Structures are given as structure tokens and as C-alpha cells.
Amino acid sequence: MVFAGGSVTFEELFRTSELLAAELTKSGIHESTVVAVILPNSAFFAPTVLGLFKLGATVALVSPKCGSGELQAIKEGIHPDFLLCTDAFAIEHAAHLGVTRTEPITSSPLLKNLVVGRWSRSESAVTTVPGAAVLKITSGSAGAPKAIALSSANVVTGATTVVETLQCTPVDRILCVTPMCHSYAFDLGVLTMLASGASLVIHDAFVPRQVLKDIAALNVSILLGVPSMYRTFVDLRLPAVPDLSSVRYLLSCTAPLSPQTITAFCERFHAPICQHYGSSETGAVAMHIREEVRNRLNSVGKAMRGVTIQIVDADGTEVPFGNEGEIVVTSAAVGMGYLMGRPNGPSPFNGASFRMGDRGLMDRNGFLNVTGRMDDMINVGGFKVSPLEVTHALQRCSKVREVAVLGVKDPFGESAVYAAVTLTGPATEQELLAFCQTQLADYKVPRRIEILKDLPRGSSGKIRIRPEDISL
Q: For the chain, which terminus, N or C, has the lower number of CB atoms within 10 Å?
């Protein structure tokens, strides 16, 4: 691992994880103990997780950016026995969360500032499903915390899927600036490093020029990015275009990336962005092929190794190529189920298959297009409006940086299209509405476009706007 202030070899990483495991055993952590890991991107993230794996503990990955309400809901939902966090986090949150005792970790200098805390809980509290190695905590699309249980076999298969698809070797260097506690960077960063022997370059915050500098200086071959990062790169004023020739994959995940951004980035930096599609429930699902990006700007690529993707109708029957339906993923990496936050209705889990809740279509060559969520269509006077279509229309405006679109109720109880945007240059709501009228049918044009400095986000970094907070 390479990080600010130093680097760690694999020998040092494994030795540190063994020392930590021995120390945690003395603290009372053992097989099937549920441990909430609440850590930022850091040199001690990977050895902490690996040390817990060695003990057979259940690792619950929690974002340090969670608010107090989210943390309380997670505590009550998964009933962790122990907490591993930084001393700063413990000082701020431990007492509020009911952590009865915290102790510093002293087994290795690499684990400096790491503390272990014990929770008191009822003996009757349900801890986890049998055989769970990891609990991925996510806000998902609905905003409420969910906990997805994964077995060790799920975890290993998920890592193998990435390594084989990207053909990762010890020569690769993966730059990780997205949160390592979230599924994207955990699977494609931490686990891929451990499974392939690749190096992991760790950034604890997104500093655009530093990221570009490290890509060139450290011969980074895989960048784990998100759409907002690539939009920032496109807008960045630079004295010269950096050399990105070492990069094999510039990946983008967590939200759709507009074709305009992909094209603008490729024209400026001479490298294609490959969209990646996956979820906490399934692990990595699909990824774009570098040579095909320009020909399929709206696609998220093809199924990864060992993954099967189907498009089905409401009855679960697979639909013909080119027809829209729900995306169903089948893979040995699909998790065991929800421990917390299971959605209403039938479970989307069915053995090794998972109904993604996303609408999509697939062409005859196996390229997948994600067209929206199954439940997000807006009924405007009897006409159905896709938020993703409106989002793409607004993204075609050169003055728009980011977009969020959803349906809200007007004072008369009727559904209307609402959009919130951030800008790259001066523009008024009237100008944006006029632009939409050139791109969309009248009933698809937003009733209101709110211009914000920043779009609100949850702890996972996903845009989170609640209809109840909006007035038309």
C-alpha cells in the first residue's frame, strides 16, 4: 500500500494483521463476533479487516460519515459486539452510541490512532445470520440503512470476479480515493489488492491535481472514480495535460456518467472512462470494454466473469434483446440476504440470483443499458416520465454540472417533475427550463429547476433529495 507519509509491503501488511488479531483476541473478539469497522481511507483499514478475517469475526463496514441517527439505527439493527475506529471518532461518538469502554491498539505503529470499543447489548439480541463474514452497510436508493450479509465464499468470489475480468496482477497499481468502507472501493480496491497482489494507492480525500499527479508519478493502472470526479477533471484548469498512459482502466461507478462527460474527458485526456455497474448485494456485475466506450456511451458494459445478467418482465420471464425490463443478476458473489432494512414485498434474493430493482435493456452483443429504477417513473397527468431521461437532457446543457430529478406532489396532489442542479457557469432557472423545452416533450419538462451550490448527499456519497423537503 502507498499512502501519505509512507508505504507498506505485503509482508508488513500480513504481519500487522496477525499482531492485531492476537491483540483483539485478548479484548474478547473471536469467531462470529460482530465488529463494526468505522474507519476512513487509511493505511490501517486493510490490516484491520484482514485481522478480523483471521479471527473469523463478522466485519460490519460502516461509513465514518454517518450521522448520529444513522449510527444509532445501525447499532440497533445489527447489534455489534465491538467497535474499531479512530480515537477521534471514539471521542466524538462512543459515549453517545453506548460504547462502554475504548482501548488504544498498541500492537503495531501502523495501527496508531486505532481504538477498540465494547458495546453492551441484550443477550437476546440477534447478531447476524450464520456464516456471515461481512456486513455491508448501505443507504441504497431509498436512504434508510441496509445491512447485507455476505459469506466468505461470496467475498472470495467477488474478488475473483474483479481480478479475472480486469486481469489484475502484482504489476497493477489501483488508486483508491472513493471510501474503502463502501462496496465499490472495498471490492475493487481492498479485496482486489489482497487477491491479486496489486498495489493500492490510498487517498483520504479527493484533491483533483494530486490524483492526476499520482497517476503519472506512481504509474497507476486502475483508477476507482465516480462521476463528480470526472466532471471536475474536465473543468480543471491545468498548465499541461497529464500523462495517463499508464492507466488501463479509468472506472466510474455509483451513478450514471453522462455521455457528454465521457466524450469531453476522452478528448482532453485521450483516455476512455469505463462505466462499472454493481451493488452491495451482488458485488461487481458489469464493466465497459475500453475499445467500445465511444460506440456505446449509454452502456455500462458487459457482464463480468462468472456473472449472468438477465432482463425480465413482471412475471420473471426473460424478455427479447432490446426490450426493457428489470435487471436480474446471478452470481456466486450474490449475498446471503438482508440483516437490516429489507425492502417491503417479496425478497429480491433468490439463491444466487438478485433482482436489482433497476430497469434496463441488453443488446444482442451483451451490452447492458441501465435506464432507471423500477419504482421511479413519474406519472404526469397519465404520462410516464423517466427521471433518467430528464437527467440526460439537462446534462446536455454545457452550464450544468450535476443533476437530480424526482417526482413530487404539487399543492393539488398531482405528480410533477422536479430537478435540482449545480452549475459550471451562470444560468437562470428560466434559461434551463427553456433548454429543456428544446430537448423534451412538454409533459417531461420539469415544473421547477432549483439551482443549488451543492446537491445534498448521504454518508455513502449518493445524492439524496427527499420529496417531502420540496415545495412547488
A: C
In this structure, whether the domain defined by 153-373 belongs to CATH 3.40.50.300 is answered with no
Cα separation, 248 vs 417, whole angstroms: 40
The set of cell numbers assigned to 175 is 488508486
Give percent helix, percent strand, percent coil of the chain, each to the nearest 5. Answer: 30, 30, 40
What DSSP character marks residue 10? H
* Domain covering 378-469, topology: GMP Synthetase; Chain A, domain 3 (3.30.300)
Q: How many Å apart are CA 241 and CA 243, to the nearest integer? A: 7
If pLDDT is split at 50, 70 and 90, which confidence band does 141 have? very low
User: Is the predicted pLDDT of residue 234 greater than 50, yes or no?
Assistant: yes
Q: Which residue has the higher pLDDT, 66 or 436?
A: 436
Q: For residue 161, what are the CA distances in angstroms to 224, 332, 432?
A: 16, 10, 42
**Is the whole model's pTM more than 0.70, yes or no?**
yes
Axis-axis angle for helices 68-78, 87-97 (nearest 10): 70
Tell me where in the chain the CATH 3.30.300.30 domain(s) lie: 378-469
Give the residue range(s) of CATH 3.40.50.980 domains in the chain: 2-128
State pLDDT tens for residues 89-122: 998 888 888 888 899 999 999 999 999 999 876 5
Whether residue 40 contacts residue 113, with contact meaning beta carbons closer than 8 Å, is answered with: no
DSSP 220-264: --EEEE-HHHHHHHHH---SS----TT-SEEEE-SS---HHHHHH
**pLDDT of 35 higher than 60:** yes
Torsion, CA 245, CA 249, CA 250, CA 256, rounded to 10: 150
